[in-house]
Amino acid sequence: MDSVLEICLSIMSKVGSAIQPKLCKSDFKIVKTSPTDHITWDIDLMVEQLISSELMKSGLNFILVSEDSPLNLFGSSPQYIIILDPIDGTDLIVRGLHGAISSLFVMRHNTNEPVCAVILDIATNQVYFAANSIEGAYCNNKKITPANTELLSHSLVSIYAPKPERLLSLCRYKEFIKKVYRIHNYGGALALAQLANGQIDAVVEMIKGFRNIDFAAGFYIAERAGAYIRDLEDKPISIDLDKDKRQKFIAASTRCLYEEIKKSIHSKRL
C-alpha cells in the first residue's frame, strides 16, 4: 500500500478513536462565527489540530489547505498539497445526528495529480479510500463499485438543498423533479462515497456549486470506483489549491444516467 495512503488511513483511525467518545455528549462550544455566519465549534478545532499534528509527525513536506485555517506550508520544499476538511457536518454532530465526516485529499504539488483520498464517516466509523497506487476504491478494505442504474426514474439522487434558498432553486427544475425516483437531501463528500459504494445512484450539484474543500475527497473516491463525473456541460472536473472555488457537477453511477440527468436539468425550468 502507498505510504502516503497508509499515513492518511492511520490518521483517520486516530480521529475516529478521539471523536467517538464525544458523540454522546452535548457540551459542544462555539469558538467563532465568521462574517458569512460559518460557525466553528471546539470539536472542529480539536480534529484539525489532531490531524495537523499527525501530518507534521509523518515527515511529509506539504501545503495544508484547511476549512478553518489559512494556507500553511510544512517543510521547505513541498511535495504534496493536502486538502483537509476536519469535520463536514458539525451541525449534525452537535445535534446527535448522522452524516458528518472527516476527509483528506492529497495531490502532488507541482502537477495537481491526485495521490489518495480518505473519508471517515464519523457516526458509523466506516472509512472510504482510494489511491493512484491501487485499483478502484474501498470501504473498510472491501472493494466498492457504483450501482448499474441507467434510468432517472429508478434513481436515488443526492442533492444538497437544506436551506430555503437552495430548496426554492431546486424546485425550479421541473423536468428533473418529475422524473427522479427519490431525492436524498444531503449531498457532499459522504454522498459521493456512498455513490461509489452503490448506495446512491447519483449526486447532483446544479444550484450554487460545491467548494473544492467540500467534495474533493468524495469526488476522487467516486471516480476511482467507476462513477461518471463531469460538470453540467460534460467537461472533466479538476481540483486545485483554491479551497473556495465552487463547481457544479453531475456524478452518476453510469454514463447513461448522467446524460438523462443533464438533459432534464437543462430543460425549461419553472
Q: Which CATH top level class of the largest domain fits?
A: Alpha Beta
- The total of beta strands comes to 15
Percent range for helical residues? 25-40%
Determine the CATH superfamily of the largest domain: Fructose-1,6-Bisphosphatase, subunit A, domain 1
Averaged pLDDT: 91
Rg from alpha-carbon coordinates: 18 Å
Which CATH architecture of the largest domain is right?
2-Layer Sandwich
Measured distance between first and last alpha carbons: 50 Å
* CATH topology (fold) name of the largest domain: Fructose-1,6-Bisphosphatase, Chain A, domain 1
Give the secondary structure arrangement, pairings included:
Elements lengths: L2 H17 L10 E4 L5 E3 H16 L4 E5 L2 E6 L5 E9 L1 H4 L7 E8 L5 E8 L4 E6 L5 E3 L2 E3 L11 E3 L5 H7 L3 H6 L2 E3 L3 H9 L5 E10 H14 L2 E3 L15 E7 L2 H12 L4
Parallel strand pairs: 3-5, 11-12, 11-13
Antiparallel strand pairs: 1-2, 3-4, 5-6, 6-7, 7-8, 8-9, 9-10, 13-15, 14-15
Helix pairs in contact: 1-2, 6-7
